[in-house]
Each structure stands twice: as C-alpha cells, then as structure tokens.
Amino acid sequence: MNIEQQMIASGARIRDAMQKLEGAPVKLCVLVDDDGRLVRTVVDGDLRRALLAGLSLDSLVEELPEQGVVSLAEGAPPEAVLRYFQEYPAVSAIVVTNPEGRPTGLIQRKEHEAGILLSPPHMGMRETTYVQKAFEDNWIAPAGPNLAAFEEALKPASGRQHTLALSSGTAAIHLALRVLNIGANDRVYVSDLTFAASLQPILYEKAKPVLINSEPDSWNMSPQALERRLKTDAEAGCLPKAVIVVHLYGQSANLDAILPLTEAYGIPVIEDAAESLGATFGNRASGAHGLMAAFSFNGNKIITTSGGGALVSDREDLIEKARNLATQGRDYAEHYQHSQIAYNYRMSNVLAGIGLGQLELLAQRVERRREIFETYRSHLSEVPGIEFQAEPAGSRGNRWLTVISLDPDEISRHPYQLLRDLRSKGIEEPPGVEADAYATALQGAGF
Questions:
Q1: What is the mean pLDDT of the chain?
Q2: Fewest Cβ atoms closer than 10 Å to its Cβ: which of 16, 215, 391, 424?
Q3: Is 75 inside any structural domain?
C-alpha cells in the first residue's frame, strides 16, 4: 500500500483530514511533522469528537486531543503484530516506521487476522470472461447459456451422463432423497465422520439417520461396519432406504467393498462427493459409482461457484425429477399449477459462469493440493503419533485438505492447544473433530 495516500502534513486542518479520509484506501490519516516523522494517526471518530467539542473545520489537526501512537518498526515479527491488535482492540491499522520514525506502511487488522486461510478460492480471468458475458447478454436469471454449458462440462468431470447444477451440495443431497421418495421414519445410513450437511437433509424429510462407523485408515465408511449393520437390520426387518457414502476430505471411500454389500440388499447409494471432485476410484471419477452423487462448489472447495452444488446420475429420469423439484415443482401445464412441495434450488447463470472458468483448471487444482499434501507428509511423517489419511489402492484423492490424526499416547499436547498456536501465528483453523482439527488447519500454513 502507498502510505503517502494516507498522510497529512503538519499544519493540515480538520477539513483537510476529512477530505483525505474520504479518498484514502484505509479510513485513517497519518500525521507527520516537517521532517516526515510520525506524529499520530487520525480516524473519523477523532474528527467527530473534535467538532462536537467545539473545534471547527478550520482548526489544526494538531489541536486534536493527544493520544498514544500505535506503530511498529519495520521487520516486526507476526507475534508482535498480533499482540498489538490484541492489546488495542479498537485499532484497525498499525503504522510501520523506519529507524528514523518515518511511516513506510500500514498493517490492517482485517488482513492480518485473515492470515493464512484454510482453503481460499483461486479466481482468474476465465471466470471474469464468462460472468461478463452473462451481464452483457442480460442472462442474469437462473437459466442461461453459462448454466447449460456448466452442466455439460460437469458430465466428463463427474463421469456422469446427466447433471443438475444447484444452489448447494446440501440441496443436491436433499433432492436425491426426495427423488427416492424417502420420507418420515425411513432409515438412511450415513458415514459417521462427516460434516452436518450429510445428515441434515435426512432430517428435513423426518427420516432417521443411522451412523455407520469409519475405518481407521481412510476415515471413510467401514465396509465391515456396514456389513454388520445391514445383516442386523435385515434380520430385524428395518433395512435402510438409502446409504449416503461420504468421500471425506477428497478421498473416495472403498466402493469396491461397499457397493456389492448394498446391491445384495437392493439399497441405492448416494455418494456425498461434496469434497472429492477431481478424485478417482477404480479409474472412474469420484461420484460416478452410486445411483446418484452430490457435489459442492462452496467457496472453500477445490473449485467454487461462490455458493453452489450439483446432483449427478446416469439415470435421466432421476435428474429430470430433481430438476422439476429444484424449480418450484411446477406441473406440466400452460398455467401455473403446483401439486407437490418443491424448492428454489437452481444455480444462477452468473454463478455458473464462475464454475465454467474454475472447471477448466480442475486438474491443476488437484495437482497443487496433492503437492501440498506431499510437502506435509515429507516433513511430518517421521514424527511419532502423526498419521495421514490413507489413499487406498486403486484410488487417487484430490487432497482437498491435508489432514492428520494425532495419537494421544504419543503426543502430549491437546489438539486445541496446537490450534491456538496456529491461530496466534495468523493461520486459520476451523472447529472440528478433535482428532483431526489441528491438521485440517495445516492446509494453509504457508505452502
């Protein structure tokens, strides 16, 4: 940032400071003396209080009540910056000065606290081109060329013949349940190590989620646990209406073992592939194995449409039924008639333009995430008590997040202690399962 855009010189009046604040990138003035050394900072509140106290617009800035100067020397470590922001919670920016006391820059609170983000989106000119085209053609409504092209591009990416772009991955799971006519008191199996969105659509329909244990290596649904539960529920006469298999952190579950079990009982599989676009299992795309699959394009996913998702299948009838439900469920009639409860779940043509640009770089995104994973594994794999999510034979994860588990018998510190250490260094960390929360935060730690 050009600090000169924020500076006012000795002799400036309150009027001058107000004009400087109006056009400055950061709403803060830096007052310097005749030798260019820092005197103080001035914010809008300082000026308002001065006018209320009786000063005029032509009063000198030096007449403002004295205050302490919040500044740091060039080269101050991140810990010092963090301490300053913690000590002065009302300060929005810190002035950086050289050894002579002259301002050379600003550190903004919002930039520092953002720090190293967990999984930020990567945007480029491709996305801008498609979005601009939507504006130029006035295709702002949900339907449009970008949306049609995005759904077409999703077919090879997902390994499916039919695709439906939606407002979220959660909406995709919900529609998958609806087209299977799952309702009140129906049982649905779901992986127990997952995000809440895998379960909440089950509850939308007043169905009953049944959690299936995860295996220790891939952390995905355990085929052995699934087999035991299927056998028990078959004997009790309460088999599920569907199984939602989650591909956690971009790593596909063991579908070679899971699908024969579900097929033996005639139970459809919905793949929760929200995190695994670009991954493969058995030389097919993740999401191309079960009856249907749901993807997410939330802002933190490997590609994004800002907010969005998709439902995919090789069954055209299922996708078309979902499409109708996603567009308010209008009956096929000349007039507006709605005979069922439906939703407004379609993705917009504008957001689909972002997705088109993002999909063009999916392969590069996967390779970069895998590079990040290998960097961490090479540095941490020899540390006792640390284990990485396994990549079973025949699969290739997209490594959306680099995640580790911590063995409490080997590592004495609690995961939340480690999370706080990361936070103190400006590294974002999400709340999550204790066993892997620390390592989840490692995704953005400088690589």
A1: 89
A2: 424
A3: yes
With a CB cutoff of 8 Å and minimum separation 6, the contacts of 261 are 223, 226, 227, 230
Contact (CB, 8 A) for 201 and 173: yes
**pLDDT tens digits for 139-183?**
887 789 999 999 999 999 999 999 999 999 999 999 999 999 999
Q: What is the DSSP letter of 59?
A: S
Q: What order do you get walking across the sheet with 103-108 strand by strand?
A: 71-73, 93-97, 103-108
Q: Which residues pair with 30 in a beta bridge?
A: 7, 41
Q: Nearest Cα to 433, choosing from 253, 243, 120, 192?
A: 192
Q: Which domain holds residue 84?
A: 3-114
Digit-coded pLDDT (tens) for 300-358: 999 999 999 999 999 999 999 999 999 999 888 888 889 899 999 999 999 999 999 99
Query: Based on the domain organization, do 271 and 342 belong to the same domain?
Result: yes
d(C-alpha 256, C-alpha 281), whole Å: 9
Picking from 301, 325, 285, the residue whose alpha carbon sits closest to that of residue 166 is 325
d(CA 332, CA 230): 40
Instruction: State whether 287 and 179 are in the same domain.
Output: yes
CA–CA distance, 102 with 95 (Å, rounded to integer)? 10
Q: Which token pair is 60? A: 């000198």
Q: Is 384 exposed, middle or buried (0-12, 13-18, 19+ CB in 10 A)?
A: exposed
Q: Write down the pLDDT at residue 243.
A: 98
Would you say residue 120 lies in a domain? Answer: no
In one-letter notation, the amino acid at residue 29 is C
Is 432 within a domain? yes
- Are 298 and 171 in contact by the 8 Å Cβ rule? The answer is no
